[in-house]
Design brief:
It is built from 9 helices and 5 strands. The protein has 219 residues and is of the alpha+beta class. The mean pLDDT is 77.
Length: 219
């Protein structure tokens, strides 16, 4: 009698393919792509922080503008309307705060909410730097407004911008000084009693004028 051949379930399974247990190359590709993207993102963030720090050099005023709802075309038009001494940069609040932390510009912290574009004014002439946005805002009937600004270490909220927009220009201060010098002594006393910044700017303008006249006379 022939012995019956008994096959167990285990004996019916195919032998394991040793190559299937090896890690396949495509499995690691998503991880490599993620690593590369993270590195690129980190570099871009560092570049943004560096750009902000660069624009803070010789900066007299920095302001935040709410840009929610503005189109790319509107941004381009606004940039064209700004004077050469003024730059408009779009950057995340976290990156901006990283750039200004530990500096007098840190007073802008109350603006670090919502979507902001950042205005950097590299001129002492503050009103002419702000006016283009006011005109842009009025002509297009935009509700977007300044979210705040820092000037000479002081924070100005949205309701305080009138003080910045009505500051006298250098030419106006110089004209006022000349009027004081030519007029009665009481006018000069009034100029001297003006706010400290206005007085300093007046004296600086007068000294500069004297130096220019002195230099011209020697030619």
């Amino acid at each position: 009698m022939e012995a019956a051949l008994v096959l167990s379930p285990l004996s019916l399974t195919r032998p394991a393919n040793p190559f299937l247990s090896l890690p396949t190359r495509p499995a690691s590709r998503p991880y490599r792509l993620l690593t590369i993207r993270s590195a690129i993102s980190r570099v871009k963030k560092e570049e943004t922080v560096s750009t902000i720090k660069t624009n803070l050099e010789n900066c007299y005023l920095m302001a935040g503008i709410s840009y929610k709802g503005l189109t790319v075309k509107q941004f381009q038009d606004l940039r064209k309307a700004l004077p050469d001494s003024t730059k408009l940069i779009v950057a995340k609040n976290t990156l901006v705060f990283k750039a200004i932390k530990g500096t007098p510009w840190e007073a802008l912290k109350p603006c670090m909410t919502g979507m902001n574009a950042w205005l950097f004014v590299h001129s002492e002439e503050i009103p002419p730097a702000i006016k283009p946005y006011r005109d842009f805002q009025r002509e297009r009937k935009l509700e977007n407004d300044f979210t705040g600004a820092v000037f000479e270490g002081k924070f100005y909220g949205p309701g305080d911008f009138k003080a910045l927009e009505t500051m006298p220009t250098r030419l106006e201060i110089y004209a006022k000084l000349l009027g004081s010098l030519k007029g009665p002594a009481s006018n000069l006393v009034g100029t001297i009693q003006a706010p400290a910044r206005e007085l300093v700017m007046t004296l600086q303008a007068y000294v500069q004028k004297l130096e220019e006249e002195s230099g011209g006379g020697g030619q």
